[in-house]
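DM between two lab members

TW: hey, do you still have the AP2/ERF domain-containing protein entry open?
JB: yeah, one sec
JB: this one, 67 aa:
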Amino acid sequence: MNRGKHCNNKSGFKGVVVCNGWRGKFRAQTTVNSQPITIGYFDNPEDAYQAYCDYVQPIHGEFFKRA
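TW: and the structure you got?
JB:
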């Protein structure tokens, strides 16, 4: 299902969440076959979003949508 970012998204990017326990860190994450996947931890949301896009685009192919 193509979903955009949630209205309560604090990072401003789809697939990127702010890590409360890690000061100033952002986590790129997705879900594959109902299983949560952590792609990695990053210092800024732009790098986390780029990693998210690089990871998800091959999986979703033509249905991949940049938010």
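TW: got it. The radius of gyration is 11 Å. Strands lie at 16-19, 25-32, 35-42.
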